[in-house]
C-alpha cells in the first residue's frame, strides 16, 4: 500500500492588501478647517460666558456662530462639531500627551475656558448678584402699574424696613465676629486679657 503524498505547496489565502481610496481618508472630507474650529470655539466661548455652555446652544446663538464662520454650515453640523470638540477636549484633559500640534494647543486652551473645571464653577458671589438682578427685574415689572397704589406703597415700606433689619443684623454679626476674633487672639497670646474692652 502506498500512502498518498501531501502537497507541499501552499496557497496564499490572503488577498493582496489594498490601500484605502483617498476619499475614505477623514482629512480629505474635512468640513471644518483649522481656522473654522478656532472661530467656532471662540464664538461659542463668548456665548457661553453669557450663559452656561449647555444653554448657549439655541437657534439664535447658532445663527450668530454661523455668521462668524468662513463657510456655510448647518446647525446640526455646528452642534456635532462642538460635541466632537468637547469630547476631544475631555480626552486631552485626561492625557496631555494627545496634544501634539500648535493647533491642538490653541483649541485646548479655548476649550478649557468653556468646559474646564474652573469654567464650570460659578462663583457664589456672581450667582448671588445674578439672583439680585433677577429679583430687581421682577420688582420692576409692569405688574406694579396694575396694582393698587396703597398696597404698592405698603410693600415698598416693608421692603425698606426689611433692608434696615438686614443692615442691623449685619452690624450685630460684625460685632460678634470681632468679639470672637479677640477671644481667639487672646487664646493664641496676641492680646493680654487686661487690654480687652
UniProtKB/TrEMBL annotation:
It comes from the Eukaryota. It holds the Pfam family GeBP-like_DBD. Residues 1-33 are annotated as: Disordered. InterPro entries: GEBP, GeBP-like_DBD. GO terms for biological process: regulation of DNA-templated transcription. Residues 1-14 have a biased composition (Polar residues). One of its GO terms (cellular component) is nucleus. Residues 29-116 form the Glabrous enhancer-binding protein-like DBD domain. Belongs to the GeBP family. This is Glabrous enhancer-binding protein-like DBD domain-containing protein. It comes from Cannabis sativa (Hemp).
Amino acid at each position: 500500500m502506498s500512502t498518498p503524498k501531501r502537497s507541499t505547496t501552499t496557497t496564499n489565502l490572503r488577498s493582496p492588501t489594498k490601500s484605502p481610496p483617498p476619499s475614505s481618508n477623514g482629512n480629505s472630507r474635512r468640513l471644518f478647517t483649522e481656522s473654522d474650529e478656532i472661530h467656532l470655539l471662540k464664538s461659542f466661548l463668548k456665548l457661553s460666558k453669557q450663559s452656561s455652555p449647555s444653554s448657549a446652544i439655541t437657534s439664535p446663538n447658532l445663527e450668530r456662530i454661523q455668521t462668524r464662520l468662513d463657510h456655510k454650515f448647518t446647525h446640526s453640523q455646528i452642534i456635532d462639531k462642538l460635541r466632537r470638540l468637547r469630547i476631544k477636549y475631555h480626552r486631552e484633559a485626561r492625557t496631555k500627551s494627545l496634544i501634539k500640534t500648535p493647533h491642538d494647543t490653541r483649541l485646548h486652551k479655548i476649550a478649557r475656558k468653556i468646559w474646564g473645571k474652573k469654567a464650570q464653577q460659578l462663583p457664589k458671589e456672581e450667582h448671588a448678584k445674578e439672583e439680585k438682578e433677577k429679583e430687581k427685574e421682577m420688582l420692576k415689572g409692569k405688574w406694579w402699574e396694575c396694582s393698587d397704589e396703597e398696597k404698592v406703597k405698603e410693600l415698598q415700606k416693608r421692603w425698606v424696613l426689611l433692608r434696615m433689619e438686614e443692615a442691623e443684623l449685619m452690624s450685630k454679626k460684625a460685632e460678634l465676629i470681632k468679639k470672637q476674633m479677640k477671644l481667639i487672639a487672646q487664646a493664641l497670646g496676641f492680646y493680654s486679657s487686661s487690654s480687652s474692652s
